[in-house]
Every structure is written in structure tokens, then in C-alpha cells.
Amino acid sequence: MTTRPNGGLVGLARVHGRSMEPGLRDGDRLLVRYGGRVRPGARVLVRLPDGTLAVKRATERRPTRTGAAGWWVLSDNPAEGVDSRHRGTLPEDAVLGVVWLRVWPPRLPASPRAVPPP
């Protein structure tokens, strides 16, 4: 992790599994701002109740079972992974950071479709 001038921490996270496909794939490296402001729709790094770190999509604020503030997080690929549908609302402090961008591997633009000669 690196400290930013404004005091925020940035670091790298690695995607494991297929729960965030098609946008993120297994092995992708992400730049994460720890403690960043979470907004609905943002990809976030979370700590699930069993201690696993995971990348999920923050969909909306919801209270936890205790009434504390929290986030409902989902996988982009609902057929894969564990999210709030399985574990419930995550407390705010379980949302560790906001994903800024994918830094590795580079994805090449799709090649233009070959057009047969006339």
C-alpha cells in the first residue's frame, strides 16, 4: 500500500474466481483506494463474515441485523461467488475500499472484423 498526499491509502487487489465476470476476470489486478467514498454501483473490496476478501458491487445502503449502517453487495455474475444474498448486509467497516481501475492484464481492443474482398 502507498499513502496518498491527502492521507488515503491505495493498493492492489487480485480478482479470484468468476463472480465479477464479465467485467473483471480471474487474475485481474485492481487499483483500490482504501477508505474511499462508496457509492451505489461502485466495485468495492470487502471482507466477508468468514474473513475472505472479495471484490463485489455495492448496490445500496441497508441496515444490518443490529440496525447499524451497512451495504448490500452483489456479484456481477449471480451464478458464481458469495455475496449479500448468502451473507446478508455487510457492516460499513467491512467495505474496505473502492476499486479505481483494472491495471493488469492489459486488454487489447477487439480486432476489426475481417471483411472479405469484393
Briefly summarize what is shown.
The protein has 118 residues and is mainly β. It has one helix at 84-87, and strands at 2-3, 9-14, 29-34, 43-47, 53-63, 69-74, 90-91, 95-104.
- State the shape: globular
- The parts where pLDDT drops under 50 for at least 5 residues are 1-6
The strand order across the widest sheet is 1-2-3-8-4-5-6-7
Strand coverage percent = 35-45%
- What is the mean pLDDT? 88
Q: Please give the radius of gyration in angstroms.
A: 17 Å
Q: What is the straight-line distance between the termini? A: 56 Å
Q: Which percent range fits the helix content?
A: under 10%
Biggest β-sheet description: 8 strands, antiparallel
Structural class: mainly beta
Reading the helices and strands in chain order gives EEEEEEHEE
Q: Based on DSSP secondary structure assignment, what is the total number of beta strands?
A: 8
Q: Helical segment tally?
A: 1
How would you characterize the overall build of this protein?
The protein has 118 residues and is mostly beta strands. 3% of the residues lie in helices and 41% in strands. An 8-stranded antiparallel β-sheet has the order 1-2-3-8-4-5-6-7. A hairpin with a 5-residue loop joins strand 1 (2-3) and strand 2. The radius of gyration is 17 Å and the shape is globular. The N and C termini lie far apart (56 Å). Residues 1-6 have low confidence and may be disordered.
